Amino acid sequence: MRTISHWIGGKPVPGSGERTAPVWNPATGQQQAEVPLASREEVDAAVRSSAAAFSDWSQSSLSTRVKVLFAFRELVNSHARELAEIISDEHGKVVSDALGEVQRGLEVVEFACGIPTLLKGGFSDQVSAGVDVYSWREPVGVCAGITPFNFPVMVPMWMHPVAIACGNTFVLKPSERDPSASMLIAELWAQAGLPDGVFTVLHGDKEAVDALLDHPDVAAVSFVGSTPIARYIHRRGTEQGKRVQALGGAKNHAVVLPDAPLEFAAEHLVAAAFGSAGERCMAISATVAVGGAADALVETVAAKARAVKVGSGRDPESEMGPVVTAAARDRIVGLIGTGASQGADLVVDGRGLRVSGYEDGFFVGPTVIDRVRPDMDVYREEIFGPVLTVVRANDVDEAIALINDNPYGNGTAIFTSSGAAARRFQRGVRVGMIGINVPIPVPMAYYSFGGWKDSLFGDHHIHGPEGVDFYTRAKVVTSRWPMTERSGSGTSVGSESASGASYHFPTAT
């Protein structure tokens, strides 16, 4: 059985062996490795190593950081296939989808390569007589990232390239379900010339997470995961005086108006619902069919759902792989059954799917459930599986109200040929990311990613400009250089410097 190590101080470090977790191959249903679960003592050692590295890295030149970032970018690009195969073997998603994940992560690295421009400060000359004011942003210290299983490369890359480019050190606690990609990323950082201790990988569960949240040397914490855990991490981290950005769950809606191109909308809905087996925080899990669009839309979507090729992520013919664990499969299957028992119309039933040669794999087939009501479990809960629910609405205003009544506000989309309807929609919904005829509106890296309501806890969205703000803090200097006179006995202060002192509050003159 392969045993995965931590990465501390620029090298692999075995776990204590006291506690471990299994790493499965979701396609075969077989355990392929075990990963150590760090104790509080191991977390402390990792953070202390990271804190020691911060002293030098925070003072490194922008040129030095950019050289490392460019080298890292080239190394990730050259190892993209290897990373994608690791992702597929531990997460289950098809390799082509995993390659797309790596590419979206690379876009953040490329954004971070522009850090000299992003960290430019401000300067105001002569704000008062002989006084100048200028500002810049400095790194905050040791930053921690707690990331989910569904994007083991991309989501961490929303964090660590920006944090490191800003001069911080970074401790990554990846999901214990698919940890191996993070170890290869650590090796690539080292090959790129990143000093030892600047990037750390620490595997673990709640004990490790709590230790990071409580550690006095951790200055900032980034998290992506479910809403209950996001709320917990935000509360506990901020109680300890840390900066926290915690991205939570989602229930992303796609509204389809009667004037939308039917084939176009259906094709994109199926891809957005069933890609990566629905295990995306931006997956479309609820379609709002408006007016006369409903019957034809459901019929077309159902036909396309039945045609999705489900199989091993390593099979180039597969369009959708398994879900990540047997527990995830069982939960999804249970929610499908609940939807049917609560009165919804189970149009396409993905339960009981068996893939030839992979009979023990964690597979759930594409599922379409029509006539879902907002009070049903399949609507209220974040299913995080290949299940598309269809809710019917009379008009676009009813659809907007439905979205706004939902506690999540991560992403949403509308399919329409009407610019007026699209503009009404984008201004009316209380959601952070909106697609117009784009079902998964993940912003490019030079914008920031984040939702509203129960999909985000904290003041900053992730990566992009807000990521730079999160991983730095401002420093402002007010400066005056008084005139001096030299005499044979040394330097004396001129009369101008002694003037202007006052006991009342200083003002510009």
Quick structural overview:
The protein has 509 residues and is α/β, with parallel strands linked by helices. The chain contains 17 helices and 25 strands.
Structural class: alpha/beta
| Separation, N- and C-terminal Cα atoms | 74 Å
CATH homolog superfamily of the largest domain: Aldehyde Dehydrogenase, Chain A, domain 1
Q: How is the CATH topology of the largest domain named?
A: Aldehyde Dehydrogenase, Chain A, domain 1
Strand content of the residues, in percent? 15-25%
Shape: globular
The count of β-strands is 25
Number of domains: 2
Describe what you observe in this structure.
The chain has 509 residues and is an alpha/beta fold. The protein has two domains: 2-248 and 463-473, Aldehyde Dehydrogenase, Chain A, domain 1; 252-449, 3-Layer(aba) Sandwich (Aldehyde Dehydrogenase, Chain A, domain 2), CATH 3.40.309. A seven-stranded mixed sheet has the order 15-16-17-14-13-19-20, with helices on both faces. It is globular.
Strand-helix topology:
Elements (H helix, E strand, L loop, with lengths): L1 E2 L2 E3 L2 E3 L6 E6 L4 E7 L3 H18 L4 H17 L1 H12 L3 H18 L2 H4 L3 E7 L2 E9 L2 E5 L7 H12 L3 E5 L6 H12 L7 E3 L4 H9 L3 E7 L2 H13 L3 E5 L4 E5 L5 H13 L9 E7 L3 H13 L19 H16 L3 E4 L18 E4 L6 H4 L6 E7 L2 H10 L2 E2 L1 E5 L3 H10 L4 E4 L15 E2 L2 E2 L6 H7 L1 E9 L3 E4 L2 E4 L1 H4 L11
Parallel strand pairs: 1-5, 8-9, 8-11, 9-10, 11-12, 13-14, 13-19, 14-17, 16-17, 19-20
Antiparallel strand pairs: 2-3, 4-5, 6-7, 7-23, 12-22, 15-16, 18-21, 24-25
Helix pairs in contact: 1-8, 2-4, 2-7, 3-4, 3-7, 4-6, 10-11
